[in-house]
Queue: 2 jobs
Job 1
Amino acid sequence: MAVHVIGVRRAFALLCRELAEVIHHAEEGSFANYTFETWLVASQERVHFKQPDEDWIRSVNFEIQVPRVIRLLRYDRLPKQGVHLSRRNVLARDDHQCQYCGRHLPLHQLSLDHVVPRSRGGPTTWENIVCACLACNVKKGGRTPHEARMKLVRHPTKPKRNPMLSLKLENPKYESWRTWLNGVYWEIGTRD
Ligand SMILES: [Zn+2]
């Protein structure tokens, strides 16, 4: 059961601490599991046969392939369900597109904007926060879109599943994730 999308750094931390193992999608639709050590050995065997859709990390002494799926070996409880309202999730929901001028921009040029400003009682919710470029954010200031005569590209809503996941699924690199998305968590679990 898929429970989270995490970054590469955290994934390797879990592997090194033996809290998780790599689940690797073999060609024939079968799966193999690896510890950090055996994954490192397997990576060495493939290091000269890298595929374009793979990611690799180079350290001083070795190169290791970034696993796409890891399995937690023990946990106390399943993570709290629901889509977490965070900067990166809002930016992912809005596809890194400024919701005022419509430009797609790199992360560092984007900010979060309260549609109805906080100073006017606007809540910090999925429905009142959008991705905005720095220029539009400054231009809008403490006004509502109507007052600033700025129209929203899309009406903001709470996503039904993790927007980081939706964004990544468009990339063929993450094809193997589909196997684990049986809907139990990502579809139903994130509904209100
Ligand atoms: Zn903008």
Note: The chain has two domains: 1-76, 80-171+179-192.
Job 2
Amino acid sequence: MSFDFNGKVALVTGANRGIGEGFVKTLLEAGVSTIYAAARDVSNLDTLVSINPDVIKPVQLDVTRSEQIKALTQTIQTIDILVNNAGIINPAINSAHDAVDFARQEMDVNLFGPMQLTSVLLPALRQSAQGAIINVSSIAGISNFPSIGTYSITKAAMHSYTQGLRADLADSNISVLGVYPGPIDTRMAEGFEMDKPAPEQVAIKSFECLSNGKTDVFPDDFSTQMYATFLDQPQKLADVFASMG
Ligand SMILES: NC(=O)c1ccc[n+]([C@@H]2O[C@H](COP(=O)([O-])OP(=O)(O)OC[C@H]3O[C@@H](n4cnc5c(N)ncnc54)[C@H](OP(=O)(O)O)[C@@H]3O)[C@@H](O)[C@H]2O)c1
């Protein structure tokens, strides 16, 4: 099954930088006709929109603001591709005294926002002849990475949500992809001292998988190796992540 990007309409959350910006640029190159680039502060989208203002449309969206999500249906009546990319990370370990506070904040952005946005846009997505929902989780969602424990919990929740959504939509024209990157060269991964691919690679690999009918995307060498370790022996990956501090 190949995926035809030509003439499609897409929405990318957290589009103003990092992996989200990479998705917008890659969608543009793929021939999508309209890309709603969503950001909390639309003034942060000026440079991106200037690449092709006929295609890239700025949209204000804080994914934790329910009223902003609901209002989107007034702007967006047609959509084929939804990229749930926006995310935050807190440096909180699982056993921290205030771990719940950090986890709640991360859940709002990393899970509940994408869930509500997807539900609100689903009626329009169902009208697509060939649609896709791309949920950005993390390799830390496959196995808990203790130094970013609460973040890992939210990304595991995103993984579970993605699996369930895929089952719900199995009889539809919508493919549901889960994306599980390792460290990528963005602001979020500034503290990780290792080889980090450019953010566009996440979008490129995701779209390759979409076109090849694959639903789980491991877009870099680190996540690919770690997932192979997990498949071999799940506890081994947990031990590897624990040893990485
Ligand atoms: N970089 C990595 O190594 C890595 C690895 C695995 C998974 N990921 C995931 O990839 C996704 C993108 O991360 P990134 O690496 O590109 O990080 P980033 O450079 O920190 O970008 C995060 C984006 O999310 C937006 N955002 C944060 N809170 C938001 C909210 N409440 N509503 C709407 N947008 C919000 C940010 O907007 P503002 O500019 O307004 O803050 C920014 O555009 C995240 O889901 C992240 O968890 C990243």
Note: Residues 9-243 form a domain with the Rossmann fold fold (CATH 3.40.50.720).
